[in-house]
Amino acid sequence: MNADHFTSWIKKTCNMLRTDLENIFPFQGSEQKICLVLDNALWHNKQTEFSRIPSRSWNKAQVYDWLTKHNVPYFDQYSKAELIELSRANAPPKQYITDEVAAEFDIEILRLPIKHCMLNPIEIAWGGMKNFIRDQNTTFKLEEVRTLVSNWLAACDETAATGVFHHVQKYEETFKKADHFIETIELTLVDDADDDTADDDAIDDDDSDAASDDDELKLGIGEEEDEDN
User: Fold this and answer.
1) Is residue 135 situated within a structural domain?
2) Is 10 exposed, middle or buried (0-12, 13-18, 19+ CB in 10 A)?
């Protein structure tokens, strides 16, 4: 898979989803909300030419061109490293090709946090389908795999799909509880750190007072010796 193939696929899929909804709901199909959940695969996150910032592999002329197109002033005597740093400081918000394609069909793209594929319903469904094929495949031929995929999809009714979404919601609740627990621990650690700092300051003050007393004592001894002499 690469970005070009995925972009072509996502365009066909978005068109199919919107068309199917309009056929199912003739008077409200265009108003129905659709959201596609994606992980952070490279081909999902290819940026548009405008939002992509220069890299060190670019030559100076390319960086000059980027800065000009983005209305960023620069001096000709800047080094390539300085030009790249300037482009990064003026980088526009990230824009993804996938998002723009989906927006043509009024479809929203939701990206998951990194390493959180369990929050994507399609990942759970995909795992179930692979398990089904592994258990039922006896000839190990591609044609049988196609048949098994069709059978699994036909059996994936509303009840099965709803179960997948409920499974994801359980993960969400678990992560929310974990976040609350972590926040509580962080507050406790911060409070403990403040107490330790206060104790250290008190110890430093005591040490300073003790040192001052020692100095005064030494001065007193010295003065007494001078008087005796």
Assistant:
1) no
2) buried
